[in-house]
Design a protein that fits this description.
2 copies of one chain form a homodimer.
Chain A: H1 2-17, H2 23-32, H3 39-49, E1 52-55, E2 61-64, H4 79-85, E3 89-95, E4 98-103, H5 108-116, E5 123-128, E6 132-137, H6 143-150
Antiparallel strand pairs in A: 1-2, 3-4, 4-6, 5-6
Chain A binds a DNA duplex through helix 3.
Chain lengths: 158, 158
DNA sequence: CCCAATTATGAATAAATATTCCTAACATGA
DNA sequence: TCATGTTAGGAATATTTATTCATAATTGGG
């Protein structure tokens, strides 16, 4: 529905540009933009947009837009031990024939070196920045296959 | 005070490892850890820690720990916007699941840093040379989607 | 175009959360 | 030590926010 989507978009804009601390204030802002709705609907909109309310530095509350990192959960209680195993490793993701490893700043090249010297046939090559490694995967190899192989020396991978 | 700080630390741990959706649940979790307090105190703790409550993918609410980016307002120049305003940026083009940004010599790494820190979920990672940045795009995300996201910061990009 | 099914929404209300108002615990300097 | 300022925290309450229960609007076949 058009009206609703416009409203959601307006809501995003309002939240990303102003610091409002209650639904009442958001409601007023939306109404100033010409949208006619009640608090009930606004509450549902906020839920759909996954907008969060958090305390601000100034001691008030602010509505904030969601982002990837805020939903991240640490996996298990032995995560400290796991962290020791391959220091610096943060995450790995795939897209098409590429893998992207994120590391702590400065760790990328040493991890990439390890991968390069492990002679993994599924991996054609890597290139490392400061905290990111790009991996090019051999044609026809699945991500799972690569993950399995990599996890032999990155135990905290998954 | 010791008790309070321990409690706040425990609270952080609980929130970062579990998905709890109400103060009642958090309260129970804290009490299981041996802390004795009421909802009122918990509310104050949450405010102090700047913990936020947001809708999760599963349709419930979750408490989430704060992070830098969630407080960013577009009025305070956003990094992607900054990137586009920076004289180093030249062009962006896509091929398959990759994007290539050309910059003036020497500018690539700082622009890539800006992209990395903008928390764009469609972008898995970037690697910068001297005047070129490679971007890997999340699977299933079209370049159009990436441009959409960028155009939220750069109106004239679309 | 019509109907069924879905989606959106408001009013009222339930539920959750923040704050007010105290009191108690603690810290500190004389 | 005492006096005094400061922080912590509970009970009750005010405020805010989510949901329930209906209706209305909208969409997608046929």
């Amino acid at each position: 529905m058009k009206v609703k989507n416009n409203r959601l978009e307006a809501l995003r804009m309002i939240i990303s540009s102003q610091q409002l601390g209650s639904q009442e204030e958001l409601l007023a802002a939306l109404q100033k933009e010409g949208f006619r709705l009640t608090q009930a609907t606004l509450s549902r909109d906020l839920k759909q947009l996954k907008v969060a309310k958090a305390a601000s530095m100034s001691g008030n509350y602010v509505y904030v837009l969601p982002n990837e990192t805020m939903y991240k959960r640490v996996s298990t209680p032995n995560s400290v031990r796991e962290m020791m195993e391959v220091p610096g490793f943060l995450s790995i993701n795939f897209s098409g024939n590429m893998g992207v490893i994120k590391t702590r700043p400065g760790y990328a090249s040493s991890i990439a070196w390890n991968i390069d010297n492990s002679d993994i046939p599924q991996i054609l090559g890597t290139i490392a920045g400061d905290d990111t490694i790009f991996i090019v995967i051999r044609e026809g190899c699945s991500k799972r296959e690569v993950t399995e192989t990599l996890s032999r020396f990155i135990p905290n991978m998954k």
